[in-house]
């Protein structure tokens, strides 16, 4: 197994025979392992690196802030005097989020300029190069004899790909990029600004995208190799039925039936965010 792809899509492994349980003559204290792991996890915390990819104006920054309910990422205000960048750029920002004593080191990588040009040929090369570079950097640290006690994990754990809500199907740019991206990292496609589509349009759009993914052999998360357990298989099947997820981002709170909710206020009501309906 290629260590550079951990925890990216895994490869199939041969099943090992079941080992019969050993007869025990008394307690040995292994029940304390779970408590020890929990204490260690609470002390060190976790790292999660997410990349968001999509055209400008699809609400990537708002969606990230909605997911983590904080000002994780803030897009620069549009300036008509500043010309649009001619090449794709990668910007990363790191925050430490703490909830009930558990710390999460969150790194968000944005890709401004993706798909915004007239000629988008090979616009995905900087993204794939960045992802592979992080894998290589982590692998080189692991290969050292006197490596660090805690290796900084800069690998991209998940890539959220924002599909424009056209209501038709995946564009050639989406297909070509996803075909290359799914071989390198876990990909989660989402329908951006899903509130711009009716329920019927959204369901038809999702069905066409699922067919596009199947026809072009695009293996998004969760992959089939995660279906080893029967419970995981059932859960993953339900998740695959809802891919791509329909998402709505919001950064303002509103009072609905006496409770404060995060959502967007429209003429016909308030849309709570984030949402994902089947």
Explained architecture:
Helix content is 28%, strand content 20%. The protein is an alpha/beta fold and 278 residues long. The strands form two sheets. The chain has a six-stranded mixed β-sheet with strand order 2-3-1-4-5-6, sandwiched between helices. β8 (259-266) and β9 (269-272) form a beta hairpin. The longest helix has 19 residues, at 125-143. The radius of gyration is 21 Å and the shape is globular.
Q: Approximately how much helix is present in the residues?
A: 25-40%
What share of the residues does DSSP label as strand, in percent?
A: 15-25%
Spatial strand sequence of the major β-sheet: 2-3-1-4-5-6
SSE run:
HEHEEHEHEHHEEEE
Which parts are unreliable, with pLDDT below 50 for 5 consecutive residues or more? 1-8
Number of E strands: 9
Let me know the largest β-sheet: 6 strands, mixed
On the 0 to 100 scale, the average pLDDT is 81
Helix/strand-derived category reads alpha/beta
GO molecular function, one term: GTP binding
InterPro entries: G_SEPTIN_dom (IPR030379), P-loop_NTPase (IPR027417), Septin (IPR016491)
GO cellular component, one term: cytoplasm
Protein name: Septin-type G domain-containing protein
Structural topology:
Layout: H1 33-44, E1 46-53, H2 60-68, E2 91-99, E3 102-110, H3 125-143, E4 158-163, H4 172-181, E5 187-191, H5 199-215, H6 230-241, E6 245-246, E7 252-256, E8 259-266, E9 269-272
Parallel strand pairs: 1-3, 1-4, 4-5, 5-6
Antiparallel strand pairs: 2-3, 7-8, 8-9
